[in-house]
Amino acid sequence: MMITTMSTVFRKALRKVTIAGVAMVMLASPAGAQDVTIEQVMIPGPSLEGNLEGNAATRDIIVYLPPSYEADEERRYPVVYALHGYSSNNDAFRGDLARTDAVATAFAAGAQEMIVVMPDAQTLHNGSMYTASVTTGDWESYIAEDVVAYVDENYRTIPAREARGLAGHSMGGYGTLRIGMKRPDVFAALYAMSPCCLEPSRGVDPAMLKKLRAFEDPADTLELGFFERATLASAAAWSPNPENPPFYFDLPGDEDAVTDPVARWTANAPLAMADQYRSALMTYEAIAIDIGDEDWLLPGAKKMDEWLTLNGIEHEFEIYEGDHVNRVSEQFRDKVLPFFSDALRTE
Fold first, then answer.
1. Going along 213-308, which residue ranges are E strands?
2. I want to staple 290 with a disulfide (CB 3.0 to 4.6 A). Which of 37, 240, 282, 318 is the partner?
3. How far apart are CA 266 and CA 200, in angstroms?
4. Which residues form a coiled coil (predicted)?
């Protein structure tokens, strides 16, 4: 069954009820797989309050509950937090996984049952980069504190680091490594799928920068192309400037910037950050990175693998046949959930 968003097709395809503000659906699973329940609930995000872009602090999370959750009321479960990519949201990520019914099928194939949580990290410029920015909000704390606390308080989790994993695709893979470096107290295992933005910045095309500087209202940029909007999102995340309205960031080449924006972007690349966080990465029970052999991000992933190997950090690294997006569902089903099944604590 193909699920993309909470569209008319989605509503007709699934049995849906709403209880106390929680949208719930029961996925009809393939033969041999038991049903999983999906809830979509609005939660507060104190860490996002007051951001200069006006990104919503209260936003939804999607929660997959395993087949035994309703029947076994005493059982507690490990949790995997799954981060979506740029120019996407958690509804789209759910749609990707629905193509193979990844969660239910993984459980049916032998992965231990767990809760899977998908936050929404879409912002004015189409993606938060999962950073802490006065302009976009503190997304690191939102994921590691606000979302985790809500899930632990409202679901039967095993509320311990050893039972929490963090995964993500593309921008979400970047967020997995970034947050993982900074919050080893919260998560015990990391899986980065086709992670972006690993290498230090080489700057931005001058013609693009000239075009972007011509805009005076952020609302006028919403119809720009993927890479143009991604440049704006990167600036909002990595070179914020609360004294530079209405965008509240500095672009590479801005002569009045206090600190060179390119240097600030470089400082936010995991390959530039990694030496500072080696000891944190050493504490993880398991780390994995995967990427397609036709993915344009392959060089950065290889360098991350090389750095982890050089520094004696145990990890798994897979290059599979595919591009940046065509095997997300299969990898989540066949690799990501089995990986966390082995890595995370159960009762």
1. 286-292
2. 318
3. 4
4. none
Encoding tokens for residue 246? 């209405």
Residue spans of the domains in the chain: they are 8-199+269-343, 206-265
Distance of alpha carbon 189 from alpha carbon 167, whole angstroms: 8
Cis check: omega of the bond before 246, within 30 degrees of 0: yes
Q: Give me the sheet containing 79-83, strands edge to edge.
A: 15-19, 22-26, 37-43, 59-65, 115-119, 79-83, 164-169, 189-193, 286-292, 316-320
Q: Cβ atoms within 10 A of the Cβ of 227, count? A: 10
Nearest Cα residue to 181 out of 267, 248, 257, 108: 267
Please state, in angstroms and rounded to a whole number, the distance separating the CA atoms of residues 130 and 171. Answer: 8
- Are residues 128 and 137 in contact, defined by beta-carbon separation less than 8 angstroms? yes
Q: How far apart are the C-alpha atoms of 177 and 290, rounded to whole Å?
A: 13
Looking at domain 8-199+269-343, what is its CATH homologous superfamily?
Answer: Alpha/Beta hydrolase fold, catalytic domain (3.40.50.1820)
How much of the chain is in helix, strand and coil states, percent to nearest 5? Answer: 35, 20, 45
Instruction: Tell the burial category of 273 from Cβ atoms under 10 Å away from its Cβ (0-12, 13-18, 19+).
Output: middle
d(CA 305, CA 173): 14
Q: Could you tell me if 189 and 287 are in contact, meaning their C-beta atoms sit under 8 angstroms apart?
A: yes
pTM given for the model: 0.91
Tokens of 41: 């609930």
Which residues in the chain show pLDDT less than 50? Answer: 1-21, 27-28, 31
Query: What's the confidence (pLDDT) of residue 62?
Result: 98
* Model confidence pLDDT, tens digit, residues 43-88: 999 999 999 999 999 999 999 999 999 999 999 999 999 999 999 9
- pLDDT for 48 equals 99
Q: Which residues contact 326 (CB under 8 A, 6 or more apart)?
A: 292
Pairing of strands 37-43, 15-19: unpaired
